[in-house]
Design brief:
Two copies of one chain form a homodimer.
Chain A: H1 7-29, H2 35-76, H3 83-119, H4 121-158, H5 165-213, H6 225-266, H7 280-301, H8 312-341, E1 345-350, E2 354-359, H9 361-385, H10 390-399, H11 403-416, H12 418-450, H13 452-474, H14 479-522, H15 532-573, H16 586-619, H17 621-658, E3 660-662, E4 665-667, H18 672-714, H19 718-721, E5 724-735, E6 741-751, E7 754-764, H20 766-775
Antiparallel strand pairs in A: 1-2, 3-4, 5-6, 6-7
Helix pairs in contact in A: 1-4, 1-7, 2-3, 2-6, 2-16, 3-4, 3-5, 3-6, 3-13, 3-14, 4-5, 4-6, 4-7, 4-13, 5-6, 5-15, 5-16, 5-18, 6-7, 6-12, 6-13, 6-14, 6-16, 6-18, 7-8, 7-12, 7-13, 8-9, 8-14, 9-12, 9-14, 10-11, 10-17, 10-18, 11-17, 11-18, 12-14, 13-14, 14-17, 14-18, ...
Keywords (chains A, B): Cell membrane, Ion transport, Magnesium, Membrane, Potassium, Sodium, Sodium transport, Translocase, Transmembrane, Transmembrane helix, Transport
Pfam families (chains A, B): H_PPase
Organism (chains A, B): Tenacibaculum platacis
């Protein structure tokens, strides 16, 4: 069993994929409703697939260029094998596939959810959540499968047992980083492109349809309405799926790299061995991920309601139950896995403190920190963005004095929400590192991500319900159908906000783990910001998320403007639209959103990928580390700020729909305060759906690019190792009374890229200590 | 001469102060206009002084608490003498005095400028710029005088020549840091309090007066109009004065600390000596500052126009001429001073590269970089915020589709403006460090700040002209008077934007120099963000500017709300205000602004000061360094973003006053697009006048607090030194063909807190190299 453990995650991943297919065929077997509903659903699906296909064509070009670049790197650096190109391509394909599966099922599930809602709310939940489950399992299954298979392949290729284990494994893991890079690159474009698409369509549909023509949301007379619904799918479903696919893969990869580093620390005196072919710490995160898939499947069975007259709280409770069940199962399993797969005592090299003994249960505690912080940050996010809570009510109150005060209040809410999130995040870094070094940090992230399948199922159910409502509206069904889908949609909005908190927390921890892996890959001692070049790059890195956000926001503005003009044109030129006798040209609007999104995603995407390469090549490994840290610090702030401000504005606007009390007066839709709130929501739209979520991928991808080019920078390629030997002796002496001195001798020997550290403390006369020191020469 | 060089800056500072008094009495001698004008001017002055006095009472309490804390530190740490308390108090008093002088002259000069504008524009410029000159010279003179006198005192107290020079000088400079801390603390409260005051009054006056009652700006019927004009003075004059006073002192101090560090590097083998009592590198920045005062005085003579029908460009040209003249004079003088006061070759310790020889002219090149980057960042700022340039026109264009698109465009402009500014700033760090280490960085900042007197004269002239316009309006003078003051005001708006760019650039470079000084004070090796605690604090630091901004913005909101209610109450309850028969209760509005500003400035102020202390004490010197870096990186981004977004919104709104073309149509004041632009401007007000400028002080004060508590953290107090001796030998070996090896031996000895580094390269057989190494034991 132990020596074949790598097959366990493969089996679990396949299990997840099988269950996905069963669920998928179940959803597809459901009644898709009458002809009109099917036709609307088909339009949405076609629009979404048209976008994806156009996107893939563009990404094909990118992938070819990136592959050539990677191939050149592999030719130049001995520790990078050309197989990384294959890993990169498969990573890109898997990521695209994960988004594609999610998108297809989501567009299949929408009309079926509407049809189910005709008769029963529990059934509607089952169908929409079933769609989400398919997506979640697709993402998680493909991620674990891809990682495991490639790991198996690379270990058989590179870890021959002839050379140094750490060195050989590093080559294998560097190749595996290609898989992660492929996945994350596609995620970036999917997120940015999808984000621009969805907001351009949304703003365009709202500004002309709702405001100028005065027709309700999702009205079939609005030419942009199909594009709007397509946008929900390409942004919230495909974008989110690719994002979490990328996080998931990157987290597990970083944990594996740090597991290898742990093995090196533990091999200081004799080579580390265990029952898992000496790879226990490397395989652990992979196995936990596999177990997380099964835990998620079990969790999905718990998500159901019985009462047809249930409201939001019951639906929310059902989702919470499933979520917590899968988390608890994963946690319990981790306890046993850690006991089984890690030695009881680990030796870890802490900075400035040398090798320390760490009991393996500390790794479990680090996992608990990861899960706790993930949950707490999600809670903080929910607090700052939920209906009826103080932050949203503050914005509502400030809407009464106009748009300006509404905007100021919203910005302030977003900014203030960084406080608790960052404190929690800093505590997670501090705590999990103190417990189990950077391996602990990476495992904290892995634990948080282990139930990705479940998280994504909950996330993806929201847009399906949203679309189901759209189908109901466009097909002009009875009111009770829309009421039922609205209940699901409303819960979906809350889960979306919480999901965004989770996505940020996981991206930040992932980036951190990648950052740590980067340092080990380059072989530098650390990243000292007291060096001017490192400090300068810290500032440059801090600027990138700001510029990225600005570009993304402007792109939405430009694309929305085109959409507005097209919708105006159609209203003017196509006769009988408003009377319902003429049919709007939906496809034209879909086309505009598609083209604009693709055009506008290129620049921010290239900035993200090329800047770290330039900095690494021009300035070297340590300044690039400073740049990465700058991107992470600034990116986390701007992600939290933009997501939460956007979410809060959205719900402040929604507060007026049910009516809200301002200074003792009930205020409703259509009031001046409501109009001010609509302005705030429009500002918040690109914040929360385009630039905000893109920050996650920006920080992860920056660190991944760094990781992949690390071998070029660190100069630890095989041919430079051969003749590099260094010995460093550090002696600290203190007087210890009388003529006695107390000396701490640290000897650090580096040979063939492997560093050993010995520490010895001696007390004696000056002469005695000197002799002791000479022994180490 | 050489050995008494310290008296040179004292003499130059006194010269500056004498010239200030001459200019002051000249301004006061001008005709203050008719009774009505004098009464208005008096009301503004009384309101401003009432605010300052209330502020001083509050700051007295703060200063007493801070003094006690400092005294306790001085009792606990041997290298901190209780005299630091005196330095702190005098620093606080000088800063308050600088603000007070500026405020008094500004409020004296406003009506006199109006009176002069009745007859002549050149005269009006002379009076308003004369007022600015008084303020600039007051700030610069007091700063150089205070620093020089305290330095003289502390050198005579602590640098006895008996002990180690570097150690003794460190104690003297640590005491001097108290002066800087006092100045910067007052600056923080002045900036934040003034910023809240001015925007509360402004928004209150605008919302009820302009929007609800439909009366023009500065109309005497508006109860908040005096408060609004007072606000211009307490925010833009006193706040800006205290801010630059703080920057000026902190920059020179940091350069002196790094000068001392340079002396230590150069004393590696034998104690450094020169004609300036062995203090040349320490005194250089002080002398350059003194020369800068004289250069500024010369520059002021060049600021005048001849033609009474001159327009904005001529006025701008006159100011530019004076500004550039003083910069060029300072630069030329620096060339000679550097040649005279520094040895021709400096030895500097670069990280990882050991001691390097640096020609002293490289320090001059670093100064040039400082001046160039200061000018370029100002230009970038001007581009992003000026009328008629693309960024502002973009916002104007986006105003046509409503407030939401205006806001999005403004946010995007602010965000995009970080790009060039940060690249320039990073280049300045990189370049000046490469040229002359951190001493070069500090001298770059010093050179940039040397002409502070001139910069401030140009900055302060704006609000005086603005107020002069207000006096003209309230006194119902003829239109041509207002037209003339409007020309000055308009130029003042541009110089204000440029001045803000300058203030950010200088604050950022100052913070950096302080950061470097901090590392030398604590005696740590560097700040390694690969350590989890340092990284965690980097994130916490990055969050502080965001929270600070949120608090400042909310404070403005709250205070403005109170003001709105008061103005509404007066319109309702005092009969005949609108008809001009009743007199509004101006004092009540002034009082509300004052109280609100003082109440609201406390929390952000305390966060700034207390957080680094807590982090330092809990986590130690290196994590605090991470925190400081986080505050700086994030603070610089948010400062640039907020200042430039605010400035751009302001001018986008102003564009409509003269009419602007949108999509081929001329659009004017009162249009829907203009209303959208007003919303943007209201959002931008707290950005550009409250939270944005506060960032400067936040980053400087954070680093200063760190510097002052450094001795507690670094453990380099005298009694721990005595028994601390460390020797570190680092050997790097490379095969050099045959049996030869090439070894680089680095021996670092630390004795009594002094570190010597010897580097030797040997090539020979293994045996020979071993022998060589043993020699160093």
């Amino acid at each position: 069993m132990e020596s074949n453990i790598v097959y366990v995650p493969i089996i679990l991943a396949v299990l997840g994929l099988v269950f996905m297919f069963i669920k998928m065929s179940w959803v597809k077997k459901q009644d898709a409703g009458d002809e009109k509903m099917q036709s609307i659903s088909k339009s949405i699906k076609e629009g979404a697939l048209a976008f994806l296909n156009a996107e893939y064509r563009l990404l094909l070009i990118f992938s070819i260029i990136a592959s050539i670049a990677l191939f050149l790197i592999s030719q130049y650096v001995d520790t990078t094998h050309w197989i990384i190109v294959v890993a990169f391509i498969i990573g890109a394909i898997f990521s695209a596939l994960a988004g594609n599966i999610g998108m297809r099922i989501a567009t299949d599930a929408n009309a079926r959810t509407t049809e189910a809602a005709k008769t029963s709310l529990p059934k509607a939940l089952q169908v929409s959540f079933g769609g989400g489950t398919v997506m979640g399992l697709g993402v998680a299954g493909l991620a674990v499968l891809g990682l495991s298979l490639f790991f198996l392949l690379f270990v058989s290729m590179f870890v021959t047992g002839e050379g140094n284990f750490y060195e050989e494994m590093t080559i294998a893991l560097e190749a595996l980083a290609g898989f992660s890079l492929g996945a994350e690159s596609i995620a970036l474009f999917a997120r940015v492109g999808g984000g621009i698409y969805t907001k351009a369509a949304d703003v365009g549909a709202d500004l002309v349809g709702k405001v100028e023509a005065g027709i309700p949301e999702d009205d079939p007379r609005n030419p942009a309405t199909i594009a709007d619904n397509v946008g929900d799918n390409v942004g919230d479903v495909a974008g989110m799926g690719a994002d979490l696919f990328g996080s998931y893969v990157a987290t597990v990869l970083a944990a594996m790299v740090l597991g290898n580093y742990l093995i090196r620390d533990m091999s200081a005196t004799t080579q580390f061995t265990d029952a898992f072919n000496g790879m226990g710490p490397i395989l652990l995160p992979l196995v936990i991920a596999g177990v997380g898939i099964v835990a998620s499947i079990i969790g999905t069975f718990l998500v159901n309601i019985k009462d047809n007259s249930a409201k939001e709280p019951e639906v929310q409770k059902a989702l919470d139950l499933g979520n917590w069940a899968s988390i608890v199962i994963t946690l319990v399993a981790s306890w046993f896995l850690i006991r089984w797969m890690l030695p009881e005592t680990l030796q870890m090299n802490y900075f400035g403190e040398g090798l320390q003994e760490v009991p393996s249960r500390h790794v479990f505690y680090a996992c608990m920190i990861g899960l706790a912080v993930g949950a707490l940050i999600s809670t903080v996010t929910a607090y700052y963005t939920s209906l009826g809570k103080k932050p949203v009510l503050d914005i509502v109150k400030n809407s009464s004095t106009g748009a300006a005060t509404n905007i100021i209040a919203g910005l302030a809410v977003g900014m203030k929400s960084t406080f608790l999130s960052v404190i929690l995040f800093a505590a997670a870094i501090y705590g999990s590192y103190a417990l189990a070094g950077f391996y602990g940090v990476a495992l904290a992230a892995s634990a948080m991500m282990a139930t990705t399948a479940m998280q994504l199922a909950i996330d993806a159910f929201g847009p399906i319900a949203d679309n189901a409502g759209g189908v109901a509206e466009m097909s002009e069904l009875e009111d009770h159908v829309r009421e039922r889908t609205d209940i699901l949609d409303s819960v979906g909005n809350t889960t979306a906000a919480v999901g965004k908190g989770f996505a940020i927390a996981s991206a930040a921890l992932t980036a951190l783990a990648l950052f740590a892996a980067y340092v080990t890959f380059t072989g530098i001692d650390g990243i000292n910001i007291f060096k001017a070049d490192v400090l300068a790059m810290l500032f440059v890195g801090g600027m990138i998320p700001v510029i990225f956000s600005a570009l993304a926001m402007e792109s939405v503005g430009k694309a929305a403007m085109e959409m507005v003009q097209e919708v105006r044109r159609q209203f003017k030129e196509i006769p009988g639209i408003m009377e319902g006798t003429g049919t709007p040209d939906y496809a034209k609007c879909v086309d505009i959103s598609t083209k604009a999104a693709l055009k506008e995603m290129i620049l921010p995407g290239l900035i993200t990928i090329i800047t770290p390469i330039i900095i690494g090549l021009l300035f070297g490994a340590e300044p690039l580390g400073g740049y990465m840290a700058g991107v992470c610090v600034s990116g986390v702030m701007w992600a939290i700020f933009q997501n939460n401000a956007g979410g809060a504005w959205d719900n402040a606007k929604k507060s007026f729909e049910a009516g809200v009390e301002i200074n003792g007066e009930m205020t409703f839709k259509g009031s001046d305060a409501h109009k001010a709130a609509v302005t705030g929501d429009t500002v918040g739209d690109p914040f929360k759906d385009t630039s905000g979520p893109s920050m996650n991928i920006l920080i992860k991808l920056t660190c991944l690019v760094g990781l992949v080019i690390a071998p070029i920078l660190g100069g630890h390629s095989a041919n430079t190792h051969a003749d590099k030997t260094a010995k460093e002796i550090r002696v600290e002496m203190k007087e210890a009374g009388g003529d006695q001195v107390k000396a701490k001798i640290t000897v650090k020997t580096t040979e063939n890229g492997e560093t050993k550290t010995e520490v010895k403390e001696v007390t004696g006369t000056d002469e005695e200590v000197k002799k002791e020191i000479q022994k180490h020469e």
